[in-house]
Amino acid sequence: MSSSTDSPTLTTETTQLSPQPDTETAKPTKKITLKSSDNQIFEVEESVAMEFATVKSFFEDSPSTDTVPLPNVTAKPLSQVIEFCKEQIKFKANPDEAQKKKYNAEFVTEKSDKDLVDMIPVANYLEIKDLLDVLNQAVADRIENKSVEYVRSFFGIDNDFTAEEEAALRREHAWAYEGVDED
Amino acid sequence: MTETTGFSKLSDDVVLTIFSKLEDDPRNWARLACVCTKFSSLIRDTCWKSKCSKTIPSVVSDLLSSPGSSFPGAWSALHKLAVCCPGLLHAGVLLQHSDFGLERELGPDDYFHKSKTTPSQQPQQASHSGGSNLDKRDSSWSLFDDLYYDTVCNVLESQDAVTVSCEANEEVIGGGDDKSAGIFVKARGIFSVGQEKEDL
């Protein structure tokens, strides 16, 4: 978790984001510790942590804490989310829409189905809107034109219909099952 | 790794956001409704409702005059009608009386009923449109064929809509058997000419 800091932008952001005098006088490279539900510790720069709206409001409510427990988030998706946010901050400092788009596209294409699906609740819980948009679109693209069985295994959803119910639903929309892509 | 499916606990709006990105092809939602009971109720009660309200607002307000009066499966049925009945979405026949600017009278539903009762009209059609056009029909599938085919296929499912359209047709046509069949042939002729032009 070593990271260099580009001081000018980070300084302004830090002062802007934290109204409390004690944080304002603190060093711009202040680290914030996030603790995942499986007790892994992540030390991230404050600017990255402030991308997480949930963490940000946590700090606004209780500015004296230095460790934020994230009881709904496991380590793996959290590390991927942090990776994403670090990049986004670079794009914020140095806006380049084309590059950002390219990065976002690569970020999701290289992830497995499971990684994507696991990251969605995390992005939702931490309220990272940009990431959630990217993930939702990526997931939608992956399940488009796929069979019901494929979508179930994609999301890890159990079929909770009875056989009759499912058969009735399929009959109702028989036309929807033509021309489905191969799983 | 069994506690992975935080996804099943995910809030409905996130799931709906994903669904909304799959709105373009109606088959996507229809299949998603089959995945599990949660998806099913989201699609049936929310997605189809908003889609219908957006695309066919007049039909919605006609059928469900008081806002609270929706019955189980109402949106599902209405959406299915909107998708499957070419008159509503594909052709705009029922709602807009559109003929794609070809200035012909539309009579496919009418012809379907007539041809079932009086098969003797078949040869008449052949003589009008000519053998070469019929041959072409096998190789190239025209827009008209498509719409006509849709209508025939879904005629049993969308009885109400078809009845409406037949009534409308009878007003225009005046109920004459030969006349309406002739109109159908004329329509097909126009399309065949169009095809030939394209082929050249």
TrEMBL record, chain A:
GO terms for cellular component: nucleus. It comes from the Eukaryota. Residues 30-87 form the SKP1 component POZ domain. GO terms for molecular function: ligase activity. PANTHER family: SKP1. Residues 129-176 form the SKP1 component dimerisation domain. Involved in ubiquitination and subsequent proteasomal degradation of target proteins. Together with CUL1, RBX1 and a F-box protein, it forms a SCF E3 ubiquitin ligase complex. The functional specificity of this complex depends on the type of F-box protein. In the SCF complex, it serves as an adapter that links the F-box protein to CUL1. Pathway: Protein modification; protein ubiquitination. Keywords: Ligase, Nucleus, Ubl conjugation pathway. Belongs to the SKP1 family. GO terms for biological process: jasmonic acid mediated signaling pathway; protein ubiquitination; ubiquitin-dependent protein catabolic process. Pfam families: Skp1, Skp1_POZ. It is found in: Nucleus. Residues 1-21 have a biased composition (Low complexity). Part of a SCF (SKP1-cullin-F-box) protein ligase complex. Gene3D superfamilies: Potassium Channel Kv1.1, Chain A (3.30.710.10). Residues 1-32 are annotated as: Disordered. InterPro entries: SKP1, SKP1-like, SKP1-like_dim_sf, SKP1/BTB/POZ_sf, Skp1_comp_dimer, Skp1_comp_POZ. Its main location: nucleus. This is SKP1-like protein. The keyword Nucleus applies.
TrEMBL record, chain B:
PANTHER family: EID1-LIKE F-BOX PROTEIN 2-RELATED, PHYTOCHROME A-ASSOCIATED F-BOX PROTEIN. InterPro entries: EID1-like, F-box-like_dom_sf, F-box_dom. It comes from Salix udensis. This is F-box domain-containing protein. Residues 111-135 are annotated as: Disordered. Pfam families: F-box-like (PF12937). Coiled coil: none annotated. Residues 117-132 have a biased composition (Polar residues). Gene3D superfamilies: 1.20.1280.50. Residues 12-52 form the F-box domain.
